Amino acid sequence: MTNIDANIGYVDVADPRLGPELLSNIVDRGKRLLSSIKSVGISTISVDRVITTEREIGVLLEEFSRNNCCGIIIRTAWFLRSNAIVGIAQRSHLPCLIWATPNQNDPGFEGLALSHGALDEVGIAHKIHYGDTSESSIKKIINWAKACGLKQKLMNAVYGEIGGRCLEMIPGSSDFNQLRKIFGLHVDNIEQWSLIHKSEEIPDSQWRPVADRWKEAFGDFRASKDSLEKSAKLYLAGHQMFQERNWDFAGIQCQLEMIDNYLAPCLPVAMWNEDGFTVSCETDINNALGMFVAHYFTGKSAMFADIFHYNVEQNIIHALNCGTAAPSNAGDMKDIQIIEQSPLQGSWDDVRKCSLCKGGCCTHFVMPPGPVTFIRFGRIDGRYVIHLEKGKAIEHKHDDGILEGLGGVWPFAYIRLDDDVNPESFIENMRSHHAVIARSECVDAVAEFARLTNIPVL
């Protein structure tokens, strides 16, 4: 079952010359098709009639609007009047999928072709689908419906940005007005001090049970008491802030100000994601968007990853995270070590000859085998693009001593890209060292969302 958290409208459209008997058969056929869609978890809104003229669509659209539909499936049955199709798409302002089923006794293919041409004539984006109720055919409808649901969810969603641009990473920042234009997304920016101040007000009676629960849940806890206490406080303060400001997802700057003056917030970020609330580190809004998209399509927290090495000969990317990966990316919390954050994350004090890092807790593990999707939103000359690839997390020799010992502190993943991924193209398509690793295969669904938002897939 898919269980898409959104309503999809459904309507049969046919020629007005057809008699009552044939129109009744079309309604019955439509009900059977509708049943196959509902059986996979797509919530549909429909009316028990065939639309034959543009004048009839008013009541239909009122029903779709009343039920807050995010997209419309229009089944073309027999021949039809294409202005009815254009009217539904034009007046609803919703994504439309034009569907015809292979049937030599129902020339709905004609209606599909005619509708496709008519919508192209007037410049209305749409999707066409010619298929039956087989698993592969219904999967295409599922991916489209999921993409419609995500588009609706992002419209008027709020992204909370805690802090400013991190380490001058230009590809990690974006134009807030452009995000509003493309996704309907609002950005609410606050300073990191607001979160720190709130965390210091958390009483012992609240943070201690959280710290005790974490120490019990994780397989090996090696971080300092101070890091654990501050992490528990920050975790609780963040949850309060997300609710008070009505955020849908967020990003936090962390480097360098927060790490130098209070805490590396890695464990709180990991646990916020584990709770189902997407938070990216390093205020990388494009990775936050990818993580939010991945979570919507898979129901799982994705890993914010740095791609630090690429074995071109074997087509294996080596990925790490500076400590914020959600525990579910490891499979089991008992498989995770909690390690004190590396001093390398803080600024270097030339006077005292030491790092200013105030410590923190990192989740340390190597991602277990399984299918993954590589996702990275980025921009080329100001226009959004998305890099998508399929792959598998694999078992791979891991040395805790790599990267001057960071191999024993942070989370890691080894991803073998699919055989059809060309290494030169992969490198050319990268727009940052950051990417999202989703712990499921969701390329087709993400590609559908990209199509709905007019974002080219690299």
CATH class of the largest domain: Alpha Beta
Percent strand? 15-25%
Low-confidence stretches: none
CATH superfamily of the largest domain: L-fucose Isomerase, Chain A, domain 2
Describe the structure.
- The protein contains 14 helices and 20 strands.
- Helix 2 packs parallel to helix 3 (82-92), helix 5 (135-154) packs across helix 14 and helix 9 packs across helix 11 (266-274).
- The protein starts with 6 loop residues before the first strand and ends in a 6-residue tail after the last helix.
- It has 458 residues and is an alpha/beta fold.
- It is elongated.
- The protein has helices at residues 20-38, 57-66, 82-92, 108-121, 135-154, 176-183, 192-200, 204-217, 225-244, 257-261, 266-274, 285-298, 423-429, 443-452; strands at residues 7-13, 43-51, 69-76, 96-100, 127-130, 158-162, 186-190, 220-221, 249-252, 279-281, 303-311, 316-320, 337-340, 348-349, 354-355, 361-364, 370-380, 383-393, 412-417, 434-438.
- It has a 6-stranded antiparallel β-barrel with strand order 11-12-19-18-17-20. Strands 2-1-3-4-5 form a 5-stranded parallel beta sheet, sandwiched between helices. It has a 4-stranded parallel beta sheet with strand order 7-6-9-10, sandwiched between helices.
- The chain folds into 2 domains: 7-154, Rossmann fold, CATH 3.40.50; 158-452, L-fucose Isomerase, Chain A, domain 2, CATH 3.40.275.
